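Sequence in, structure out. Go.
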Amino acid sequence: MNCLVLGGNGFIGRHLCKALVAAGHDVNAFDLPPREGIGWPEIDNVNWYQGDFSSPADLAPLLDGCEAIFHLVSASLPASSNEDPLCDLQMNVAASLRLFDLLITRESPPKVVFASSGGTVYGVPVVVPIPETHPNNPLCAYGVGKLSIEKYLALYHHLHGLESCVLRLANPYGAHQSATGGQGVIAAFLARALNDQPLEVWGDGTVVRDYLHVDDVCAAFLKAMTYHGSERVFNVGSGHGVSLNELIVMMEELLGKTIVRRFFPGRDCDAPVNVLDIRRANESLDWSPRISLREGISQLLGQMKC
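Output:
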């Protein structure tokens, strides 16, 4: 298929571009211009384009012949989105609507596969693991924005027949994830531990999260691209929860040393537990995670030491 990856230069985007190429697809990738002195990732058979996601004029030339669009763009982070909800709305929701308006003008609109957030759209869970039918009460503007884009995709399907599939992702981790980008606690913790720096833990370390290797994330995206069933929203996670304290102990075992922790007050944007029920993805997409947390962290640790 002819695919377009929006946000292709991000952590998930780079891995997804590689996975699509490996599966035999034609891949165009779109993102902001690379920082000065840093070029595009060296991924064979990927065509790179730069521009502004909020500009239809920048996106329109890439839609000719496009059959699937992977929407990975986000201009905010969960922890900081509450500082300026209006900016979050304009940069993420409004920009996505411009894209959808552009797509419905096409004779054969491509399918949209959207990276939503299983970690933020639900809020404080009333049942764990959390199914897709769980109430949505986000604690941060980031989650509100993701949920809004989901709802607009459903509306555009109803009004215009735009095909889409939403993946509510758990906490992805893996090679080349930034240790200082504000997301990705595993990469951040490992980087600090390898440099003998104390870990910064928000709360008492009992917060439970669902972590998923990026290779398993990409496998779910490829399954969603060719899915034609009635379901449109899927949780994509490991299905298992691990507290920050347990995560640190696992890292200590793999590193063979004690890691110093520093504890800070908990944050309002953090639900006490978030573990996703992934049965729908397993049954409808024929997808399930393959890489265990210990195996994934061990792989990442080896890569970071190189």
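Check: The first strand starts at residue 2 and ends at 6. The two ends are 35 Å apart (CA to CA).
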